[in-house]
């Protein structure tokens, strides 16, 4: 099952899809920047609590900025990335890439075919999906970026921020009857 792990002090401001990025990392009480954490390459088994390295964060942000579906959906709207955390999958946990939230500078409406990932209720595995979504008042998007396959694997309006999904040809949430 995909897991979103806690992230500490990462704020990345991006202006539009193709622009460069600026990141601000928290500092220690002594005013020094903490050393970059070490983490095994994507695809290796991990304990589940390691943050992404600076290189992995950079690769996630580059794939995000270059994604043609995201460009189509948000157009010229500026956005900020928050909660960039490792995206893990399977048992034992395998690092796939980064899970994040894209906060938009203004609400948008769109109709687009979005990439998605569906997990079974029990057992290993996942299915890649394509879902046509018509949404309004979208203020943020949930995004998973796959570093193993070098692509954006999931984009969906974040319902917590008030997005109205008017039409969706497939759902991402499953009820397993537990």
Fold and architecture overview:
It is a single chain. With 178 residues, this protein is mainly beta. It has one domain. The chain contains 2 helices and 8 strands. Strands 1, 2, 3, 4, 5, 6, 7 and 8 form an 8-stranded antiparallel beta sheet that branches. The chain is globular, with a radius of gyration of 16 Å. The chain starts with a strand and ends in a 10-residue tail after the last strand. Residues 1-40 have low confidence and may be disordered.
Poorly predicted regions are: 1-40
Question: Which series of helices and strands comes N to C?
Answer: EEEHHEEEEE
Q: Tell me, what's the shape? A: globular
Q: Helix/strand-derived class?
A: mainly beta
Total strand count, please? 8
Strand content: 35-45%
Task: Name the helicity range.
Answer: 10-25%
User: What distance separates the N and C termini?
Assistant: 15 Å
Mean pLDDT: 73
> Helix segment count?
2
For the biggest sheet, the summary is: 8 strands, antiparallel
């Amino acid at each position: 099952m995909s897991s979103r792990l806690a992230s500490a002090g990462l704020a990345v401001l991006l202006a539009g899809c193709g622009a460069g990025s600026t990141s601000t990392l928290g500092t220690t009480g002594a005013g020094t920047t903490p050393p970059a954490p070490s983490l095994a390459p994507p695809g290796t088994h991990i304990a589940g609590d390691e943050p992404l390295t600076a290189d992995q964060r950079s690769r996630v942000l580059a794939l995000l900025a270059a994604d043609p579906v995201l460009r189509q959906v948000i157009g010229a709207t500026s956005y900020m990335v928050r909660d960039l955390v490792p995206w893990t999958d399977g048992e034992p946990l395998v690092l796939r890439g980064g899970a994040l939230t894209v906060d938009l500078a203004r609400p948008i409406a769109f109709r687009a075919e979005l990439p998605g990932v569906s997990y079974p209720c029990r057992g290993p595995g996942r299915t890649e999906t394509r879902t046509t979504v018509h949404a309004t008042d979208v203020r943020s998007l949930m995004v998973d970026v796959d570093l193993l396959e070098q692509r954006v694997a999931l984009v969906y309006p974040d319902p917590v921020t008030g997005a109205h999904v008017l039409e969706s040809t497939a759902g991402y949430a499953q009820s397993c009857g537990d």
